Automatic annotation (TrEMBL):
It comes from Affinibrenneria salicis. The keyword DNA-binding applies. This is GntR family transcriptional regulator. It comes from the Bacteria. One of its GO terms (biological process) is negative regulation of DNA-templated transcription.
């Protein structure tokens, strides 16, 4: 849209009206993220002050939420994660059409702790990986996973782009057939706060997942620390009870 600069309506109001129409048309689905201030400045050929006035106007109307250092988002827009379907954390983002990516932060071998022995029994050493999950290049969750079966030949690049379950099934030669999930509240320590770009002590969702191979061996135990302001869990139920079904690519 080209702004009418001789119009009695102020420039910032014209920009706000344009963005409002685009929001109503679903242009910023599915993530709900609006262009950055610098992108809007270039698009409309106006000053940063004018762009900020337009965004403030939309914020006051309750149409968008502005998050310092992160950008502007359509109000109430959240990433949905259906927990009644066996689908990976990463794939649950991608199947919504989101610009989802992973960044591998660490990979090493660790002695099996007493807490993890109840899942992995006599396995003395586990492979540990830590990956940051992003949407539109913004951190949304940190995943920490432990495995007893993991191919040492997998490259850093493969682990960064392929879902966990796909990697595990390739290494084990059999399918993962069950996943146990628990969700609870967790408060960010300094490390989590720095990684997820939140304040120390900020509330997070903590999703704990343990998955199992068809032969009943534990495939992996993972902890996902999730920013709650843009994330929600959904569950479909019926009179016969919730049924967890496999759907789509393998998980991670």
């Amino acid at each position: 849209m080209e702004l009418v600069r001789e119009n009695m309506t102020s420039l910032y109001q014209q920009i706000a009206d344009t963005l409002r129409q685009e929001i109503n048309d679903g242009r910023y689905n599915p993530s709900g993220k609006l262009p950055s201030e610098s992108e809007l400045e270039k698009r409309f050929a106006v000053s940063r002050v004018t762009v900020r006035l337009a965004l403030r106007h939309l914020t006051e109307q309750g149409l968008i939420e502005r998050k310092q250092g992160k950008g502007s988002y359509v109000s109430g827009k959240k990433v949905a994660h259906g927990i009644n379907i066996m689908r990976s954390f990463h794939e649950s983002l991608r199947q919504q059409g989101l610009n989802a990516s992973m960044r591998l932060l660490s990979k090493n071998n660790q002695p099996t702790s007493e807490r993890l022995q109840r899942f992995f029994h006599a396995t003395p050493t586990l492979t540990f990986i830590e990956r940051l999950h992003l949407v539109d290049d913004e951190p949304i969750a940190l995943g920490r996973s432990y495995f007893s079966i993991f191919s040492p030949t997998l490259s850093w690049q493969e682990i960064e782009v392929r879902p966990t379950w796909a990697l595990l099934e390739q290494s084990a030669g059999q399918n993962i057939t069950r996943a146990d999930i628990a969700i609870r509240l967790h408060y960010a320590d300094k490390t989590l706060a720095n990684t997820l770009a939140v304040a120390t002590g900020a509330p997070l969702f903590l999703l704990e997942r343990t998955s199992w191979f068809a032969d009943t061996r534990c495939a992996e135990h993972s902890l996902f620390y999730i920013r709650p302001e843009r994330y929600e869990f959904t569950l479909s139920n019926s009179e016969s009870g919730a049924v967890i079904a496999k759907d789509g690519p393998r998980g991670g």
